[in-house]
Design goal:
By secondary structure, the protein is of the alpha+beta class. It has one domain (6-79). It is built from two helices and two strands; from the N terminus they run H-H-E-E. It has a two-stranded antiparallel sheet with strand order 1-2. The longest helix is centred in the middle third of the chain and has 19 residues, at 21-39. It is extended.
Length: 82
């Protein structure tokens, strides 16, 4: 994937009713996956996704920061758009 300038993503979000950067990125993923799947002959309208979610408290200092596998996943369905 090519890098995106965060300012461009913010400008796109402002154009679409103050959408968040996350909304813009998920929209881009939706369109890209729809195009990719269509080229492979898959006419799916949705895609199930698992997103990692940290269960750790946000550290207040650098010393409190620990690397561990204390996470779960969030499951959601992304609608695929053209």
């Amino acid at each position: 994937m090519k890098p995106f300038d965060i300012r461009v993503l913010k400008k796109i979000g402002q154009h679409f009713n103050k959408a968040s950067i996350n909304d813009v990125v998920l929209g881009l993923i939706s369109v890209a996956m729809k195009e990719y799947m269509s080229k492979k002959g898959d006419a799916s309208k949705t895609m199930n996704m698992l997103i990692p979610y940290s269960l750790r408290e946000i550290p207040k200092t650098a010393k409190e920061h620990k690397l561990c596998n204390d996470f779960s996943v969030l499951c959601f369905t992304l609608g695929l758009c053209e």
